[in-house]
Structures are given as structure tokens and as C-alpha cells.
Write a structure and sequence with these properties.
The structure holds 2 protein chains of 2 kinds.
Chain A (H helix, E strand, L loop, with lengths): L17 H12 L10 H11 L6 H11 L3 H10 L11 E6 L2 H5 L2 H11 L13 E6 L11 E3 L2 E4 L3 H13 L6 E2 L22
Parallel strand pairs in A: 1-2, 4-5
Antiparallel strand pairs in A: 1-3, 3-4
Helix pairs in contact in A: 1-2, 2-3, 3-4, 6-7
Chain B lengths: L2 E4 L2 E4 L6 H7 L23 E4 L6 E2 L10 E3 L3 H16 L15 H9 L22 E3 L9 H10 L4 E4 L6 E4 L12 H5 L5 E3 L12 E6 L8 E7 L2 E7 L12 H5 L13 E4 L2 E4 L2 H13 L6 E5 L5 H15 L4 E2 L29 E5 L3 H4 L1 H14 L2 E4 L11 E2 L4 H8 L4 H8 L3 E6 H4 L4 H14 L10 E4 L5 H6 L9 H6 L5 E5 L12 E6 L4 H5 L2 E4 L8 E4 L5 E4 L12 H13 L7 H20 L27 H4 L2 H16 L4
Helix pairs in contact in B: 7-18, 8-18, 11-14
Classes of the chains: A alpha/beta, B alpha/beta.
Chain lengths: 202, 676
């Protein structure tokens, strides 16, 4: 649970970049006058995206001021939800699904790959500080199990070798292709589809 | 009004009440932890579960509004089982450390587990442990004991108005903390100790001092400010161990300020316990006979115009009255005053120096105008009431000065008395707002009354309000915010001298003998005056004195105090004066006996009845004695609020170690600037 408590080393300041600011302004506008504080969750997520997948204390203060609410209220929200990371997780944040379907299909091999390539322990940064991994509960892609999520992308139908390949690319700074690694389109059956053959774009 | 049945007893309650309140009305006691009358409803402890007909599950009575025809049962096996289950969950993670817990003996969890709990636990796993939190010098935390009722969080957010406490994390990891464990910056913070139903938040200065059943409890009133909060003083032998609030809906509701609660350790230190005489700049112990003889010879050897007397800010009315009688009858002289500054006072009418709208009236007001007052520091409990009005009724608050954070938002003006003048001449936007408000409140602080043009402005304000018919039978918009406990009482007793400026005369060293009773705030350069100081603490007054008469503090004698609204309340004796010290009225009475061979009063009862007679006569005299005044000088001044240092506003607070710590913690926060 180390990601639920703020990290020891904190940056001094935080500010929205111009694109984040634009996004934040758009979200704040969705709420009626005087209820802007409701935007806190979305803003925290924007801050997390901007800041390499984690939220420093300075960002919480910044958002509290942005929405004119007490610091502690933002802090409460940020510590409550598990998808906010309060410690650095690296530019590439790997989440490996280990819930039952993925586990049956060999998710533990993916975990092994993480341990080999990234770090021995969960939530620990890799040597070059660009990457970390954690086990998560079901990510909702059971049909393509086993799978993992890196930042916003899903990597599916994996095995240990393919996972290592992906990590190698990431660690070199390349962007590996998201999606199935057994040549499937989305969640279609393996070896082409078996039903609805007459509909072209089904 | 909905009718419902509670345990087959039919009750009719107001719309909008909760089932819990209805049950109480029907005489059925419901156990609870998170529910509190003065706070919003959380419904998270689940202890108040009751059975409702047609509901398959038990309902949380604190959060369920009453409805017509409900049939509630609180004494069935079903309810009992539900309570036992909740209790078992609450105790799963609660440590069994009652023998070393300060809450023991007055702990809701302890009491309720005795009544409603099971005698053993099925929880075999490890209990969770939570690190302690830093919450400032007043609150000791032991967060493993916390049951997450969130009363403290709701209190600081809703009543104290400083959102500094919160619940972080979730599930088993939930913890109550201040933001990054900074100390709480509220003058009401220690009320969370009373609110905490378990021993998670306990009193730091009182830690391991005593058990509640060992203490003698005395219900009395507080003197740390002029509000007159009702308190319970707990004593162990002579020592005042702690001060707790008692409920008075008209004054302090259920809260007291931190100063009221914690300045009591000042009653143990710096005390004057024997008469002293100064020889060659050094104080030496003496006997009462000796000092009385010296005082007598001094009084006899000086002309009566050269004697003056001042009463302080913590003296009770009996003392004030006998002091006045002593001057009137024994010394035959009217050189006495209770003011320590050039504060303007027109005591021809009582409404000129009290808080006329009353503290309860704040909740009815629709416009509050603060002039030269900072209620947060001058009357903390009253400020909490203004915040309540602001939160519930959205009452508009205007302040002439920018006085910093008052825990609610207000509009501030430029602080010039010229602005004030134009407003009350009726030509400003705010003038119209005051005119159109049905129940406006003008709160005038002591800072304004110290001004050169105070009289002009005061009359201007009063006349403006009169002209616009704001004085009605049930509303008086004029409010003076006094800061000290005995101010209004002393004015009622007429302990003032408006003919001469005694302070100026004192400063220019025109007197030979100065008699100070609990008065420590006078600024004068002592030359050849012979100063007699009577009081409880060795402070500024005692330092300048030639003779010290040890008196009693407010917890050590019975006595009346009139609060800023003009309500007379009696403070009761909880302890006794230390050493050879005596009750204040007794000292003056005995001194009078030495002087004239005759006591002023035979006993306390005679003194009291004489005082009440005097007050009654004074009240009747005032009604016939109203005069109009015009042509007063005005000059524009910048109004600066002269605040006494909040934590050191009187002798008791100045002697208190806890108040020093509070002050330090506040300064630390300011200097590190971590909040920005």
C-alpha cells in the first residue's frame, strides 16, 4: 500500500501545464456555480497524468487552491482511491492483472517477467527510474487473458517472452504496439471467427 | 406532525426529526457513537440500529427521518443481536488498554460495551495499529483506539470552521489526522476531546493526572472572556485539574474555548499565598495584621483626594461592590475606576455597554456589522455563534477592518472612521442595507471605544439606528463586545469615574496611594506612590506594589459575574485560596474593620443583598436619567484593532504553561510558512 501514502521526496512546486490547464478548465465548467469542488477527482487524475503517473503533495495543494477547498479535503480524496499514486511509479506504470481468468492463463509468468526486467518488488522503481509494476485486480479484458496495462494501453494475449519483449522496448524508450500479441483483432476468436460469417464488419 | 409508535408507546414529533430523537422522546435510550445533536448526521457507527416494522433489516435510527405510522422497536432480541454484532466489530480493532487510557471512567465505548456488548471476542487475528498523530499542544492522540465516528472531523469543519482534520485512507487503513500532522489552528480545537467517544483524542495537559471519579466537580462560570461560558471545574484537593464545558444553550451551547479549558494550570503557579511588604525593593513575608496596620497609617497620613483605586478584569461583583463601598464609606472618596484605558462609556443607559441583541439573537440577525472588533479572539464562543448563523442562515457579515480569518467570509471596509461616519450619516450602500435589514446587529468592539471620537461615533451610530426604527420591542441592534469577565459587572455597579480622568492623573503621578484590586493592566511610571495590590497572581500589578494582599482566584470564591449580554451568573467555589490568601471581599471587609473598627458588612449574605439592592436602584435611576448630547468633535482616524495577545489576556492565562505552548505552536506555524 505504499502508493497510498505520500512519498518522502517531494517536488517543491507543481503547476498545470497549458494542456492540463485547458482540460481542467473544461471539467470545472461541467459543474454548476459553487459546486466546482466536485471536479477534484478529475483534476487529481489530470495532475497524475501530467506528473509521470503520480501525485505529489504540491499538486494536491495546487488543486485545493484551484478549487478553493481545504487541503485536507483533497488529501482525503487522494488517499482514498487506489488509482491515485502518491509515490513515483515511473513514466511507464505497468499493472499486471492477476485475477482468476488471467491467473489461470498464466499471469504469474508475466509477474516473473516483471520481476526479472523491472524490479524485484512491486511498486519499486526500475534501475533507471522509468518504470515500476504492480499486481492489480481484474482490468476487464478476461477474454484476452493474460494481459497487462501500461499507462493507458492494454497489452493482451501475453506470455513471458512477449512480456519481456515489450519491457525491452519500453526500457529503450520505444512505444510497443498495444493490443493482442497473438494476432487477434480485439476479442475475436482465435483462428478467425466462427459465427456471423455473412456480416462483413461484425 | 407525524405520529409513530416506539415500543408500543405512541409519540407525536415534529416533521424532520430522526427516529433516534423520537425514541428519546418516548423514553427509549438508543446507544450511539457518531450521532451528536450539534453536528451533522454521519450514520457510520451503526450502534443506533433499531427494528422497524416491515423492514427486513434493522435501520440506523440516527439517519432515518420519522414518518407517519412507523412502528419502532428498540427492546427486541433482534435489536439486541444487531447491537452486539456492531459492538463486536467496533471492538475487533479496539485495544484493551482501558487501565492505561485517560478516557477510562467516562468512555462511551466502555460504558456501552458493558450494557450492549458481548463479554468475549471471536476476533483471533492481529489488531491493527495506527501511528500517533501530532495535533498540537492540547490534543494527545492514541489513534489505535479510534473507531472512526468522525465527530471530530465534523466538529472542526462545521462548528470551528477550520477544515484541518480529515479521514485519510480507506477501510482498515482509515486514519483521522490533520493535514500533514500540523497542529490545529483553532481556538475551539480542544472540544474534540469531549466529543471523542473513545480515548483516541485525550487532553495532553491532563494526561494521567486523575481519574474522573476521584475529582470533585463544581459547576460554575468561566472568566477568561466576557461571554461567561458555563463550565465544570474538576478539582483534586486544592488543585484545579481541568475545566469542562456544561451545556447552556443561551451562551456557550456545548463548547468552550481552549483558553477557558486550559488556562486553569495558571491557577497553580505564580500564586500569592501570603501578604508581602516591600522593604528596599525586596518583598518580605508579613502577617495580615502588619500589612493592615501599615495600610491604615498610610491612609490616615494622606489626604483623601490623593487616594485612588482600580478594579481589575477578573474580579467578581461582590469584590467590586465592597471595593466601591470601601471608597465611598470608609475613605469618603470617589477616585475609583474599573477601566484600564481611556475607553468611552456613557453609563446613563445600560444598553450602552452590553451586548443587547443577546448571543441567541445572533441566529435571528440578518446583517452583522463588526466595528473595531475581532470576535474570534475577543469572544471565541460568540464567534462560533456568528459562524453558525452564517452557515445556517447565510447571514451577511461586514467588518470595518480586515481582521483576518474569522472562520466565515465577510466583507471588509477600509478601516477609516471617516467611512464609518459616512455610513451612519446614511449616504452609503451599506446604510441602505442596514435600514432594509429587519434585524441588523451592530457589534462595537472595545478598540473603537478607545478612540478620540468614540463618543461622537457611538452617538452617531445609536441615533442612526433610532432614527430608522431599528430599536423595537424584541430587537436591540446595538451591541458592545466587552473582552473581560468583570467589565459589565463593574459598569453595572458604577465603578467608574467620568468626572475626572483618573488614568491621566495617575500617569502624571498625582496620587499618593494607589489601591489595585486584581488590576494588572495599568501603564504608569511609579514614582512616590504607595501601591497596594490585592490579587491572586504575582504579575505586573504585584511587581509595582509596596504591599501585596493575597486574594483568591475565580475558582476559589463564590461570586457573581455579569457577562457581556448583561446576564448575571454565579461562579461557585471549587477550591480554596492557597496559603494565607483570603477571599477578596473578606480582605477589604477586614481592612475596613481595621480602619474604622467596624466591618462594612457582617457577612457575605448582607453584602449580596446590599449589592442587589444597589443594582435595582441603579436600574430605576437610569430610566429617568436620559439626556441628549450633541456637538461632539470628530476626527478621522485609522482604526487599528488593539488585540490583547489571545493566549495571554489575563493574569491566569499569563501564568499558564499550556497557554505558552499554544502560543509557541501558533508562532511556529506562522514562521515556517508551510501552509503556503
Amino acid at each position: 500500500m505504499s502508493l497510498r501514502r505520500p512519498a518522502k521526496n517531494q517536488p517543491e512546486t507543481f503547476e498545470f501545464s497549458s494542456s492540463s490547464m485547458e482540460e481542467a478548465d473544461k471539467i470545472v465548467l461541467k459543474y454548476p456555480e459553487g459546486k466546482q469542488q466536485s471536479a477534484v477527482m478529475a483534476l487529481l487524475y489530470i495532475a497524475q497524468k501530467q506528473n509521470d503517473n503520480w501525485i505529489p503533495l504540491a499538486a494536491m495543494k495546487y488543486i485545493a487552491k484551484f478549487l478553493d477547498m481545504p487541503y485536507i479535503k483533497v488529501y482525503e480524496v487522494a488517499t482514498f482511491y487506489t488509482m491515485y499514486n502518491l509515490s513515483p511509479v515511473g513514466k511507464y506504470f505497468v499493472q499486471v492483472c492477476t485475477t482468476t481468468p488471467c491467473m489461470i492463463r498464466g499471469a504469474n509468468k508475466l509477474v516473473e517477467a516483471c520481476k526479472e526486467k523491472i524490479s524485484d518488488k512491486e511498486n519499486e522503481l526500475s534501475n533507471d527510474k522509468s518504470c515500476s509494476w504492480m499486481e492489480v485486480e481484474c482490468l476487464g479484458a478476461c477474454v484476452n487473458a493474460p494481459m497487462m496495462q501500461i499507462n493507458d494501453n492494454y497489452y493482451e494475449d501475453l506470455d513471458k517472452e512477449k512480456t519481456i519483449e515489450i519491457f525491452d522496448k519500453i526500457l529503450k524508450g520505444e512505444d510497443p504496439k498495444p493490443g493482442s500479441y497473438r494476432g487477434r483483432l480485439n476479442t475475436e476468436p482465435e483462428n478467425n471467427r466462427k459465427t456471423l460469417m455473412d456480416i462483413k464488419n461484425a | 406532525m407525524p405520529k409513530l409508535k416506539v415500543n408500543d408507546i405512541e409519540v407525536e414529533v415534529e416533521e424532520g426529526l430522526t427516529v433516534l430523537q423520537a425514541c428519546e422522546k418516548a423514553g427509549a435510550e438508543i446507544p450511539r457513537f457518531c450521532y451528536h445533536e450539534k453536528l451533522s448526521i454521519a450514520g457510520n457507527c451503526r450502534m443506533c440500529l433499531v427494528e422497524m416494522e416491515k423492514s427486513p433489516k434493522p435501520i440506523a435510527s440516527c439517519a432515518m427521518p420519522v414518518a407517519e405510522g412507523m412502528n419502532i422497536k428498540t427492546n427486541t432480541a433482534f435489536v439486541e443481536k444487531a447491537r452486539k454484532g456492531v459492538m463486536e466489530f467496533l471492538l475487533a480493532n479496539h485495544p484493551l488498554d482501558c487501565p492505561v487510557c485517560d478516557q477510562g471512567g467516562e468512555c462511551d465505548l466502555q460504558d456501552q460495551s458493558m450494557f450492549y456488548g458481548v463479554d468475549k471476542s471471536r476476533f483471533k487475528e492481529n489488531k491493527r495499529a495506527v501511528p500517533e498523530k501530532h495535533m498540537g499542544p492540547l490534543i494527545k492522540t492514541q489513534m489505535t483506539r479510534c473507531i472512526h465516528c468522525t465527530r471530530c472531523v465534523r466538529f472542526v469543519t462545521e462548528v470551528a470552521g477550520v477544515s484541518e482534520l480529515g479521514a485519510i485512507g480507506r477501510g482498515e487503513d482509515m486514519q483521522i489526522t490533520t493535514y500533514l500532522e500540523q497542529s490545529m489552528q483553532s481556538e475551539l480545537s480542544a472540544n474534540v476531546i469531549d466529543l471523542c467517544p473513545v480515548g483516541a483524542l485525550t487532553s495532553k495537559p491532563y494526561v494521567f493526572e486523575a481519574r474522573p471519579w476521584e475529582l470533585k466537580k463544581t459547576e460554575t462560570v468561566d472568566v477568561m472572556d466576557a461571554v461567561g461560558s458555563n463550565v465544570r471545574v474538576d478539582t483534586y484537593d486544592w488543585e484545579v485539574k481541568r475545566v469542562l464545558p456544561i451545556i447552556n444553550e443561551d451562551i456557550n451551547e456545548e463548547w468552550i474555548s481552549d483558553k477557558t479549558r486550559y488556562a486553569c494550570d495558571g491557577l497553580l503557579t505564580q500564586r500569592l499565598d501570603t501578604p508581602f511588604i516591600k522593604y528596599n525593593g525586596k518583598f518580605e513575608k508579613a502577617s495580615w495584621d502588619e500589612v493592615f496596620k501599615i495600610i491604615k497609617s498610610k491612609f490616615e497620613n494622606s489626604s483623601k483626594e490623593k487616594i485612588c483605586g482600580f478594579v481589575g478584569d477578573l474580579t467578581n461583583m461582590e469584590t467590586g461592590y465592597i471595593f466601591k463601598e470601601f471608597f465611598d464609606r470608609t475613605l469618603n472618596n470617589k477616585n475609583y475606576d474599573s477601566r484600564s484605558d481611556n475607553r468611552f462609556l456613557d453609563n446613563s443607559e445600560r444598553e450602552n455597554y452590553i451586548f443587547n441583541s443577546s448571543i441567541n439573537g445572533i441566529e435571528d440577525a440578518d446583517l452583522i456589522f463588526l466595528i473595531g472588533a475581532n470576535p474570534r479572539y475577543e469572544a471565541t464562543i460568540l464567534n462560533a455563534r456568528i459562524r453558525k448563523a452564517f452557515v445556517n442562515n447565510n447571514t451577511k457579515v461586514i467588518s470595518l477592518n480586515d481582521v483576518g480569518d474569522l472562520t466565515y467570509s465577510y466583507k471588509n471596509l477600509d478601516g477609516q472612521t471617516q467611512t464609518l461616519k459616512t455610513i451612519f450619516e446614511g449616504s452609503e450602500e451599506i446604510s441602505k442595507e442596514i435600514i432594509s435589514a429587519s434585524k441588523p446587529m451592530i457589534i462595537i468592539g472595545e478598540s473603537l471605544l478607545k478612540f478620540n471620537s468614540a463618543e461622537h461615533l457611538f452617538n452617531l451610530i445609536k441615533n442612526f439606528l433610532k432614527k430608522n426604527n431599528k430599536f423595537t420591542e424584541d430587537w436591540n441592534p446595538l451591541n458592545i463586545l466587552s473582552c473581560d469577565a468583570s467589565t459589565v459587572g463593574n459598569f453595572d455597579l458604577g465603578i467608574l469615574n467620568n468626572e475626572k480622568n483618573l488614568l491621566e492623573e495617575l500617569k502624571s503621578n498625582k496620587f499618593e496611594i494607589v489601591f489595585l484590586v486584581g488590576q494588572d493592566n495599568l501603564d504608569f511610571n511609579k514614582k512616590n506612590e504607595f501601591v497596594i495590590y490585592q490579587g491572586s497572581h504575582g504579575d505586573k500589578g504585584a511587581e509595582t506594589a509596596d504591599i501585596i494582599l493575597p486574594g483568591a482566584a475565580y475558582t476559589e470564591q463564590d461570586g457573581y459575574f455579569t457577562n457581556l449580554e448583561g446576564k448575571m451568573q454565579k461562579a461557585y467555589k471549587a477550591s480554596y485560596p492557597p496559603g494565607e490568601a483570603k477571599e477578596d471581599w473578606q480582605i477589604i471587609n477586614e481592612l475596613a474593620e481595621v480602619m474604622n473598627n467596624r466591618k462594612l458588612f457582617n457577612d457575605k449574605e448582607e453584602l449580596e443583598s446590599s449589592m442587589f439592592n444597589y443594582l435595582k436602584l441603579q436600574q430605576e435611576k437610569r430610566i429617568t436619567n436620559i439626556k441628549e448630547k450633541t456637538n461632539l468633535e470628530f476626527q478621522n482616524e485609522k482604526l487599528n484593532i488593539q488585540l490583547k495577545d489571545y493566549y495571554f489576556s489575563n493574569v491566569i492565562a499569563r501564568s499558564s504553561k499550556t497557554m505558552v505552548e499554544c502560543n509557541n505552536s501558533k508562532l511556529n506555524i506562522k514562521s515556517t510558512g508551510t501552509e503556503g
